[in-house]
Design goal:
It contains 13 helices and 22 strands. It is α+β, with helices and mostly antiparallel strands. The strands form six sheets. Strands 8-7-18-19-20-17-21 form a seven-stranded mixed β-sheet, with helices on both faces. Helix 1 packs parallel to helix 9 (227-236).
């Protein structure tokens, strides 16, 4: 994607963006930079979608509605922050990729070697890694080197588990390396997820490019990093913004082939429309069917996975042995340390996708993990409070049927004139990630801009 600054201004009819998550915000932001009048509507009371700021009232603490892993490979995310005038250095703790995985039988630890230039920082990291034999390290290096040259589309119909097995990865490596990493990335069990997504994620994360594999640990809630500065920019540019504006219906011409605008409970907005919504939310009437049935070739193939985040505040929270700590026992979860506020340190526990935890009650899950953490880190003192946040539809399932449907359809254009779509479900290359949502929003804006330029050229 070219820098937004390289686009000359252009003022066509208004564009209405429905959905104020990261994709919708990015689309509205790009269109604004290119001179479009924009209306941005969001049904929720705040901006940010699945990465939004919430309040932990008992602690007087603002935090994310769920833990997200950010990487140095998130180039568009970092580029927009800089365009908004933010110095990214104080926003994150940037650390070389490192993680520790603890199972019932083995403890494994990897740490990228920052003193070596890329890609040797990763190679030396694996050579110095703990918990794997020399032969296992060689197998990991061999597959990561091979993945860099693969065409991911050739593996759409192969599950991640099958792919790893055919690439010589042992059961131990799958348990102690691939399963925790790729479940966090794909939010889908490896026996169901398409290898296409795993290969794309690994190609970027282990590309060998300088800084791409670094971890970016936010020092403030994500809502304060991107959504709030974006909204401030849009307001400064005089754009029309509205939270608590749930779209009830779309307006079409008599044939249903052209979109004319949207209608909320309070008002009617006319103009071209971008739906920055998950497909499950596109239940607007369109003739004898729903809009989802019109836009998605195989709507039955789109399923979703939950992501559960539990925040624990203890008297004396420990210093974790690694920025990323995975505990693989009855439950599979990652533990992060949060430093949003000087007087409160919090542990964030994340469980991705379906698993044993989805069959038990909220209190059973919180109690079980709390006791495991207290056993693992004695001396934390008493529990001050805990907070349970489940996003039932946090990520789309990365199974092969979904991948096949996505990479064979247009990303942003719909069969209905003047109606566009964006969101990480429409972005071909990634699973549900914040970078994928941003790239989708920017890509949709670029597609609109290019279409208008083409029409302008033809008119001349």
């Amino acid at each position: 994607m070219d820098s937004l600054e390289n686009r000359s201004t252009y003022s066509p009819n208004r564009v209405i963006v429905v959905g104020g998550g990261w994709a919708g915000l990015s689309c509205a932001y790009a269109l604004t930079r290119w001179g479009y009048p924009v209306t941005l509507l969001e049904a929720a009371p705040q901006w940010g979608g699945r990465a939004r700021t919430i309040q932990w009232a008992s602690l007087g603490l603002a935090l994310d509605n769920g833990q997200h892993i950010l990487l140095g490979a998130y180039e568009q995310f970092l580029h927009i922050l800089r365009e908004l005038g933010q110095d990214t250095k104080p926003l994150f703790q940037r650390v070389p990729l490192g993680f520790r995985i603890e199972t019932a039988n083995r403890v494994c630890e990897f740490q990228s070697q920052a003193k070596w230039p890329a890609p040797w920082n990763l190679v030396m990291g694996f050579m110095k890694a703990k918990g794997w034999t020399l032969g296992e390290k060689w197998r990991l290096l061999k597959i990561l080197r091979r993945i860099r040259g693969l065409n991911a589309s050739d593996y759409v119909d192969q599950t991640v588990l099958t792919f790893l097995q055919t690439q010589g990865q042992t059961e131990t490596l799958i348990e102690t390396f691939w399963s925790p990493l790729l479940l966090a990335a794909l939010s889908t069990p490896l026996k169901e997820a398409s290898a296409f997504y795993a290969i794309r994620v690994l190609q970027d994360s282990f590309s060998g490019k300088k800084g791409h594999s670094d971890l970016l640990i936010p020092l403030k809630p994500l809502g304060e990093l991107l959504p709030e500065p974006m909204v401030a920019f849009l307001e400064e540019q005089g754009q029309v913004l509205g939270c608590h504006q749930r779209v009830q219906s779309l307006l079409f011409d008599e044939t249903g082939s052209t979109c004319l605008g949207v209608k909320t409970k309070e008002a009617t907005f006319r103009g071209r429309v971008v739906l920055a919504l998950p497909h499950r939310s596109m239940n607007f009437a369109h003739g004898t069917q729903t809009l989802q049935e019109t836009l998605v070739k195989q709507p039955q193939d789109i399923a979703y996975q939950p992501i559960l985040t539990i925040y624990y505040a203890f008297e004396f929270p420990p210093v974790l042995p690694s920025p990323l700590l995975a505990i693989i026992k009855q439950y599979h979860y990652w533990v992060f340390q949060k430093h949003y506020d000087a007087h409160v340190n919090v542990l964030a526990v994340v469980l991705s996708g379906e698993g044993a935890h989805t069959t038990e009650t909220k209190d059973e899950v919180m109690d079980h993990i709390q006791h495991e953490l207290q056993d693992r880190f004695p001396g934390m003192g008493k529990l001050i409070d805990r907070k349970y946040i489940q996003e039932k539809y946090a990520a789309f399932s990365c199974h092969s049927d979904h991948a096949s449907a996505r990479i064979t359809q247009d990303q942003y254009v719909t069969p209905i004139s003047q109606l566009w779509q964006c969101g990480d479900e429409t972005h071909h290359d990634y699973p549900s990630t914040l970078e994928g949502a941003i790239q989708s929003g920017l890509g949709c804006a670029q597609a609109i801009w290019q279409t208008d330029r083409s029409m302008e050229w033809m008119g001349n």
